[in-house]
Amino acid sequence: MTEPDRRREDPDEFEEIVAAEQDRDPDLAAIEAGSRTLRAQAGARPTAEVPSRPADPETDRALRDVETELSKRWGETKLDPSVVRIRALMDVLGEPQHSFPAIHVTGTNGKTSTARMIEALLTAMELRTGRYASPHLQSITERISLDGAPIPAERFVEVYEEVKPYVELVDAREQHRLSFFEVLTGMAYAAFADAPVDVAVVEVGMGGTWDATNVIDARVAVVTPIDLDHTNRLGTTPEQIATEKSGIVKPGATVILAQQPVEAAAVVLRRAAEVDATVAREGLEFGVMAREVAVGGQLLTLRGLAGEYPDVFLPLHGEHMAHNAAVALAAVEAFFGVGADRPERTLDPEVVRQAFATVTSPGRLEVVRTSPTVILDAAHNPAGARATAAAVSEAFGFSRLIGVVGTSADKDVRGLLEAFEPLMAEIVVTRNSFHRAMDVDELAGLAVEIFGEERVQVEPRLDDALDAATALAEEEHEYAGAGVLVTGSVITAGEARLLLGGGR
What we know:
It is a single chain. The chain is α/β, with parallel strands linked by helices and about 500 residues long. The protein contains 18 helices and 17 strands. The longest helix has 21 residues, at about 155-175. The protein has two domains: about 50-355, Mur-like, catalytic domain (UDP-N-acetylmuramoyl-L-alanine:D-glutamate ligase, 3-Layer(aba) Sandwich), CATH 3.40.1190; about 365-500, Protein-Tyrosine Phosphatase, Chain A, CATH 3.90.190. Helix 4 (about 55-70) runs parallel beside helix 7 (about 155-175), helix 5 crosses helix 7 (about 155-175) and helix 15 (about 415-420) crosses helix 16 (about 440-450). The strands form three sheets. An eight-stranded mixed beta sheet has the order 4-3-2-5-1-6-7-8, with helices on both faces. Strands 12-13-17-14-15-16 form a six-stranded mixed beta sheet, sandwiched between helices. Helix content is about 40%, strand content about 15%.
């Protein structure tokens, strides 16, 4: 199918999406009020780094103005199968995406955690890094990181002002303006080129072939586990989704392939053969040799492309995080040319240990308070929910777990709830501020079908839902080991993080 045939752009639908995107910003007044109440309760504690709004009022206003302008563009939740506009922007910006080598990361689950691990390894090896990620938990500045930290708000605004004239030039030439995600992608590549960075770690926004990030020529392509998600945009089978995601594999690149469904792996291997790319497969060329639960995380022995790395402490929970670590290690080895045929280039094991010990992944099984323990997790599809449920069961000895769940309407919500049902004693259903959030009554109806009416409570406001779940966890002495898991969406996790005092 040709690119024009695949565009499927409808002017009426475009205007509808733009109008909806303007409603994305949270009800900050309500969130701030709830945040003050929750932070006043005992047990709140600092959380891993995520930038808050800048303290300087002028910078804060400028950042809000930029966010407002961006929100009026075509939202990132609709896939436009074309890279015409982003290529036009790169052209007028002077092709900044070609000024640094890159590691490109796609997949259904684990992209962000894997990218953060890759970034930590590269930083430990004294390289200047850039990382581009989506979506963000609390601040839009999280999407562009330099040297392991989100870009300062002042610099984010500066980069936007620098690229804005070029964005407007492309807007004037094209049928539709550049989208929200395309502008941010252009900003990230411009910021990386200006820094300059030694290497960029770039997550796709959605898919691969037609994703705006795919104008880079990455020497390493990482494919994390593929599952069914965004099926209305990427396809309804693992093969179809893998076909879209394998589009990031460039001629002569090295592909780091996480464990996959057989049909998805076959698609990626076929793409690699077509473009003469080298493939390293988890479970064959690299993998997790051993793992054991440890205080605050897990202790791993990882097999890389050219040798073993024992005694690696990873301060993240869950078997899926161990597999993410193996994928990240192999990606960095491939970037440096390490392989079974070049064992002399094995990475320094002590540097690898130091790097993994520093890894954080906000909103991914993140403990944000104690008494009772409250965990945030951004699982938003059944595969992610199953991984989260297994990790919570393994790492936390809860006698009773209360769930706070707010999802997007376009997800497999039934599958997600079914994955959590054996784990959660009770569930408080709610909604986040995003316009695509599932209606709370509709979510409650599904939850009642799966959990039973006596185990379901409805609280339309997230702050009230957190209060209700905390009360349920604390209500009887026999549940001294009770906890709360807040999940269902990146937006839900991010807004709960703000309410509970994280990243202030």
